[in-house]
Structures are given as structure tokens and as C-alpha cells.
Amino acid sequence: MPAEEGVVMSKINSDDARRAWLAARLVPLWESPSAHKPPQPPQATHIWKWDVVRPLVELALRETSPAAVERRVLQYVCPEAQLPHEEHTVGSIAACVQALLPGEMARPHRHTMNAIRFVLEGGDGAITTVDGKDCPMKVGDLVLTPAWSWHGHRHDGDQPTLWLDVLDVPLHNKLGTVKFQPPPMIDVPRTMSDDVFSVPNILPVENITDREYTPVFRYPYEGVLAALRHAPQSSDGARRVRYVNPRTGRPAMALLDCQMMAVDKDTNTRPRRSNANMFCMVVEGEGESMIGDTTISWGPKDGFTIPQMNWSSHRALSDNVRIFTISDRDAWERLGLLEEVEG
What we know:
By secondary structure, the protein is of the alpha+beta class. It has a single domain (about 45-60, about 70-180, about 215-340), classed as Jelly Rolls, CATH 2.60.120. Helix content is about 15%, strand content about 30%. It has seven helices and 22 strands. The chain has helices at about 1-10, 15-25, 50-65, 65-70, 170-175, 220-230, 330-335; strands at about 45-50, 75, 95-100, 105-110, 115-120, 125-130, 135, 140-145, 150-155, 160-165, 180, 220, 240, 255-265, 270-275, 280-285, 285-290, 295-300, 305, 310-315, 320-325, 340. The chain has a six-stranded antiparallel beta sheet with strand order 1-19-16-21-14-13. A six-stranded antiparallel beta sheet has the order 2-3-10-5-8-12.
């Protein structure tokens, strides 16, 4: 019988074989275009200039409200994105700008995606509440809303507040792990005051929460600047500090790695390359970056991408250059796939 089957198969021409495989939902791997696909060139950088973005945010302030749309958000979408499900900024990162007017509030909700808020403008009187803990939002502050934490916003001040939102939505879309829960708030975990962690090298003995993420949700800008002033120079010539979980020293929130970078005036950093994707928000100062074979010029509140596998370097053209960066580096590192080199 096996020999007869072999005879029968030898008489089947390639078209018949292919039809038989497809009918059984099988494909020959040796014919797959991805099996011998050459490496693709890195995605090009893109920059969103604040003098273009800010008037369009003003338009959103006039056109709608959190009461109507839940969150007043405009997303930075890379030029390569063509379809709704491709709404991403770079790699597994979705970066946005969100706005809240005095007297407004955005009701609490929670979702499986991690999210950060980095305050760009306004700030006085704006508050993000995370798992019931109020986190004031001042310019330069980082506020975390880790996965499945309840979070909402309110504004008790008198000026509009704008902040950078960054989430790992594209990653969850690919993994099929997107979950969202509206109010009412249930199962709210216990939290600890940030003052418990305000003294360097001192931690509470008791841990009253079973959550893996950082017990600190707000990282004030003045503290970051103090640390940055004393940070040693990195091998590429910049100075960097990382936002961390004070209990573990690991990135403050899983999958998204947040850092602040300073470059001294007239300094050219040495080129670096990584398979992680990065979004950069200029906090202060002016300069330019060489990303791949493209040079971009930037100033305060400009946002730009460093897509994976691009060589990148930076030059400060003014004093006090500080750039907030967020990447999916932690995701690659957890998978054992992180690759970083310096030129």
C-alpha cells in the first residue's frame, strides 16, 4: 500500500499538489516569500513639530469634550500606517497628546494596556487619580497608570493642561490581550503614600499591595533634574536617568522603559543602534538628531521617533537640552531579544 501511494503521488503534477495542500490548509514553507526575505531597511524617523500640533489641539478643545468622547486625545500616527488597526507611532508604542480644560473631568476606567502621562503644558490644578491616589500634574512630571489600574483625571485649575500619553496598545492588539473596564470602580488595591519612598535607600518593610508594578505613580520633574545633574556620562556622551520601581530597580512599569536624557551644548553623541523602538519628547532646549540617513531639527515639545535598527546620534545647540524618551526596550529585554550596539 505505501508503495502504491508513492506511485500515485508521483503522478500528481505540482498544480494538483498545491490544490490538495491548500484544501487541507497546508502551504509549502519552501515557497513562502518570508522564508528567504532579505532584511528590510529600518523605518524612517518622523517628527511632529509643536508649532503645528498645538493649534490642532486647540481645535480639539473647541470641537469636543471628555463628556462626549471619554478622553480628548490626538494620536501621533507614523506615515507608514494606512489602516485603522495600524494606528501606532513607532513599533509597539502609541503616543498621543491629551488635553483637559479647567472644570473638566474624565471618569475613571482601567485596561490591560500600560500608559504614562508626561505633562507638557499648564498643570496647576490638574490631577490624575490612580487606584484612588491623587497625583498632581505639573509640567515635566511623569504619572504612571500601570496595566489594570483604575485611573481618571480632573482639573481644578484655571489653565488648559496638555500631556503626552504613551501606551503599549499595538503590542496588546497583536497579542489579543486588550481588555477594558468602565466604572464603577471595583477591587481597588491598597496604595502607599509616595512619602514612604521619599528618602533615598530607605524602603518600607511591609508591602501592602500584591501588584507587581511600582507603588509610586508620580515622578516629579524637579527630582528627575536633580538626579540628572549628578548622573555620570553615558558611553555615547549623553547623561541619562531611568524612572524605576523603587522596590526592584527595574523600569517603573513593565514593557515601557522611561528615561530622561541630557546633552551638553555643542556635544555630539556617538551613534547608537537598538532593535527597540523609541519615541522622544523634547522637554527643553534645541538641537538636531541624525537618525538613519535623516537629520531632523527639534525644539521644546517636538516629538520624534527612533524606529528600531536605526543608527541615531544627537547634537545640542543650546544649554539645558533635556529629552524624555520612552521605548519598548523592556519588552525586548524580557524576551531575551534585546540588541544594542554603539558605533
